[in-house]
Structures are given as C-alpha cells and as structure tokens.
Fold this sequence. Notes:
alpha/beta, about 260 residues
Amino acid sequence: MQTYSDPVHENLAAAIPCHNQDPNPRQDLRAAILEKINFTESHLRSLYTQLNALAPVSLLPTELLARIFHLLRDSKKYGKNARLPRAVAVSHVCRHWREVALSDSSLWSAIRDNAPQCSRSCFTKMLVRSKNAPLDIELHLPHPNLLRSLSRHSSRISRLSLSGLMNSGPAEDGPVQDLFKIEAPALEDLHMERGYHQRRPLSTSGFRLFHPQSSKLRKVHLYNIYIPWTSFPKCTLTHLEIISESPDTAETEVENVL
C-alpha cells in the first residue's frame, strides 16, 4: 500500500510550536508559503497570457479589435441586461484586450448609466480614461455627485442628455443649475427632460452652458426646462424642440429665436 507524503504539511507540523518554543518558525513557514503562492499565481497569469496569444482573435490588428470594441459599446442589444459598461467589460477579458481598451481614449468617451454596476467611481474612471476625447454623456436620474464630476469636464462635452430630473425644489435643483452655469463650448446636442408630473419647470439663472454668438450647438430638446430665449444661438441651430407643461413659460419671446 502506497502512502502519500505532503512535505508542506510535514513542515507545518514540525513547525507548530509547543508552549515553550519560539513561534517564529511557524510564522516564517507561513510567509514562505504565501510567497510561493504569489509566485505561482504570477506564473499562471503569464501562462494564460501566452495561451491567449495563440487564440485566433489575437491575430486581429489592434485597430480592428478597437473598432469591434466601439461597435459593441454602441450596440443596443442586451444593453439593459449589461451589468457593467461595455468598455469596462471588454477591459476585464484578458491583458491584451485591456491594453487595447485603455489605449483608446475615444472608447471611454460615450458614457451611459444604464448598467447597474456603473457606480460613481466607475463613472469617474471613464471620464479619466477618455482623456481629451469629446464626451457623449447620457444619464437618467443623474445623482448630484455625478453632475458635479461632469461639470469639471464640461469643455469636452459634445452631446449631453439628462432625463428623469425629478427634483422638486430650488435646493435640489442646485447641481443641475450649477451645470448650466459652466461653459461647454464644444456642445452640439443638448437633450434635457424634467421628470414627468413635475409641475414646476426647472429654470436657470446665470446661464452659460452655450454662448449665443460662438456656440456649436445644433440640436436642442427641452422638456419642462426653461432657458431664456436670448441664450439660444441664432445661426447654428438646426433642430429645436421645447415642451412645457406650465403655461407660465409659454411666453411670446419665441420670435427672438426665429
């Protein structure tokens, strides 16, 4: 009958101190085992990287793989069931994919909050990874902290869509109003919707989001959001849709836009 010898357990048993022995041998053995585990895990990661390099998909040029990532990010299929933003998901597949994803700043420039695990930290990481790329932002029921983070990158926003703004008082409107006061010279498309059943439209003071003389703005859709007519650019707009449930904002200043 053969017996199995486990040198690790044998060494561990020999290192278990008696009451009168110094406990250091046991601690030293534990440290040695942990060091060996770390070495083995590092070696396994290296082997998996070599194995992945032999997969057919690894033969794709970097530019083509990055293009596929963009198509996946923009696809609406399974979008509601995605736990993480698509850009984050592909960066978790393997080391090569992560390097390709992180090197493409434009991959991170389209930011949505439709993934359940897209926390504020995830949102912030995507803003950082987008570097200087123009931003395409689409948020539903945006948290005030997200709006504050977004304000620091307002100069790069080319498209901004905020929906489900359910605030009901001046104090709660603060983050949205603060966003209005920060210039966004690259903004081309603005879509903002006040939450349904909100009787009081969201008004702004000190509006600076786009300059009426130098704006690149082309499309505007506002629902229960009041922006002074004189703030709209008069030569660049190609689409304008303003809907209000409050008759108080339906003033006859519309001719100033036309």
